[in-house]
């Protein structure tokens, strides 16, 4: 249980609250942010939910998503003008400034009281209050326990529960990942009692693909998959032309890495995605293979032991070459 005494003080009177998630938000970042915003509005606070970049289209059904401000659609001056009256700022599902990309100024130019709600390892010291648990399966799990600490569980509506469940189910890969604990299942059970339609949530997340996305997955598996059997590694290389060819939107590559990891005897899987002048890497591993150390040491990233991400500013060809050389250190 978290010490929520400081948070109680901060929320004692109605405030202008900002809820900021990381760039390229996933279901945990978006769902937890929306759950927090819905909860705070019920308490009389005015809330601005900010996503640095577009959220995945397959999450556009989440309750409250129509209130999200996508920073990429605004100028810096316009964004700062919207935030100038904020009294309190929550940083949800990130604890490293690099997760904000170029929108890091939203934090650096703000001297309001900042609260981190997160579960990623090695948090940076930029907030006034850290509500954090690296053992938690998702930030949604952290937020649920914060509600418990505030003695406000009864304020969880079906909409709030749905947003939290979306975060739990995706960050645990439908409760299959090793980060799934007994408490994760207990929280999921509580959320069902608060009104979550689990079948509908699972279907909207996993069975809601566009035809072009399905064609892309077929293309990626047949044309973009590299298997290095001696190293027990499989990875996809997605070129910027592939995004144009299949009209890919934010989140359309979600889940692709799991196809590589599902192969027999594969211990490390990755997706290397070329966008403009940057290559984004998503890493997944099993057992003791530290995906987070690879991301942190070589690709200015991080994450969890078995799920991490990073970036490279080399060309795609150079990044792939570097990635394969790095594998010799970790996978032999």
Q: How does the helix and strand content classify structurally? A: alpha/beta
**Strand percent estimate:** 15-25%
Q: Total helix count? A: 13
How much helicity do the residues have?
Answer: 25-40%
What string gives the helices and strands in order? HEHEEHEHEEHHHHHEEHHEEHEEH
Largest sheet: 6 strands, parallel
Mean pLDDT: 93
Order of neighbouring strands in the sheet with most strands: 3-2-1-4-5-6
**Based on DSSP secondary structure assignment, what is the total number of beta strands?**
12
How widely separated are the two ends?
41 Å
Net shape: globular
Unreliable stretches covering 5 or more consecutive residues? none
Radius of gyration: 20 Å
What does this structure look like?
The chain has 332 residues and is of the alpha/beta class. The chain contains 13 helices and twelve strands. The strands form two sheets. It has a six-stranded parallel beta sheet with strand order 3-2-1-4-5-6. The protein has a six-stranded mixed beta sheet with strand order 7-8-9-10-12-11. Helix 2 links the parallel strand 1 and strand 2. The radius of gyration is 20 Å and the shape is globular. The mean pLDDT is 93.
